[in-house]
Amino acid sequence: MTLSTSEASMSTASVSSSENAITTLCEMCLLKPENPVRLSCNHTFCPDCFSLANREPISCFCPACKKPVRPSTSTVNAHSSLADIELELERLTREKKKLLKSKQREIKKMELEFLNECRNQKLIKLKRLKSELMLIQDDILAMTDASTNQSPQSMNETNLSPNSNDSRIKFMKTEEISNNHVNMLKNFSDLENNYFSKSAKYRSIGHLIYNAFRYDSFVDNGQITVSDTPATSAYIYGMSASSTNMLSVAGTLKTVNIYNPTVEDPLPVVYPLTKLPSNCFTWSTSWNPVSPNLLAVGDYNSEVKVWDVVGKVATCTFHGHTTSKILNVSWTPTKPQQLLSVAYDSTQIKVWRLNERGSVLDINVPDKLLMLSCKPLSPFHFAASSVDRKIYSFDLRKPDRPVNTLAGHAKSVFQLKFLDTKTLVSASVDGTLKQWSYDSCQCVRTYKGHQNTVKFIGLEVFGEHILCGSENNSIYLYHEALSKPVMSQQFPPSPSLTGNPCGDGNERLVSAITRVGDQVCVANDKGVIRILKLGEDTKMKHFGS
What we know:
The chain has helices at 5-23, 47-53, 82-143, 181-186, 188-197, 205-213, 538-544, and strands at 37-38, 44-45, 215-225, 236-241, 247-251, 255-259, 274-277, 282-287, 294-299, 304-308, 313-318, 326-332, 335-343, 348-353, 361-364, 369-374, 381-386, 390-395, 404-407, 413-420, 423-428, 433-437, 443-447, 459-462, 465-469, 474-479, 487-490, 510-516, 519-524, 528-536. The chain is an alpha+beta fold. The radius of gyration is 40 Å and the shape is elongated.
């Protein structure tokens, strides 16, 4: 039987309408849901039926086809009318408003929590500031004249203001410390921290200020020119001083020159007392702590020689380093027969004894060595720096591994000096000095102000002060408690090889510094050594008293 066109059309519409009606029923209970849950697989369920089938929201699936799906409460589909779409939009708008209100409530809650915490933190700071202010007031009152009749209660914030003319704080404006006021301001943060920490090392902040700023100049006491002729110059790698104030100079000249820079009357030029011959460059020297005539020399031929300076005789020569340059030699302070050395591009520290032909001990480190420094008054302890930016402390009684490791520099550590038996100072080509607690391995302070990004610079300690060279031909003076320089001075220009007395315009490097008695000898890479004294500010001395 053949259907007419109109009958076929009516039959198709009836089927489509029937299918649409079926799709609006729940696939489980076959009832029309009030708030249908329509899945991405086009199956529809009552909310209760869908929840019953999916009790674990983490693993959501369609109860009809078992496919993983994402539920949607939207009733809009391809067959929805415009009225249904508008109703759905209204519902979504209401949901959006609810979500926005909930979000705003959460934002306000978080903001309130922050403000409360901020208030609490400020109250804590205010309490501390009030306590510190009272401490300052008490200290000011303690320093005032006994004839002053004002009581502590009368000292309020007004008469403690910077514009106050109160005579009791006149000492902060007196001429005695005005010359150092700029340096004090540069280091004010460190001074303030030391004041409130009540460091046991200083009786008062006044004593710290006096000790830190007691020197106000470098006084020129003469000059040493290592080169024999004006037409040549020498790079000075290292200097050391004996207990009898003899100065040894190592560098690119094939001699080790010995000087006496501590003459009573300053001379314009100091000449060598003697010269120890060498067939190559020398890098490092070290005087024996007990026998002041014995000098250890490390050279570019991987040899460590011990010289009798008076007799100009090499009493012994040590071989054993497999690389060329001996970067550092050092006697142990309380064992005058024992000597340590490190070589360029080597990971081994060698220990020598005068009555032994070869090394008595070889100590290995993780990376290539650069410098070592023996702990004062100790026959066993020393520190060594490496290109891996670390400093290793050793005990010769336990040489298998480092006792401690000091890490904190960003680049290789080129110089080491003990400030005292508990404190180590290091210089790195990251442009900083660092002070370390040798026992706790903690970095106590970082010093910045000089320039050092490429080469070895000079480093020396002078009581509580630290002297270091710089790649701008200057010497810088730091105090151990302050992170910025308290004084600096630039070398005068070195005459160039062309005869120009103003130099050749190139920046120079202060490559070596050593203390000789109450003076310091400062050398640059042109073979010029200045003999300097730290000039003491008489007004600061009066203030300190």
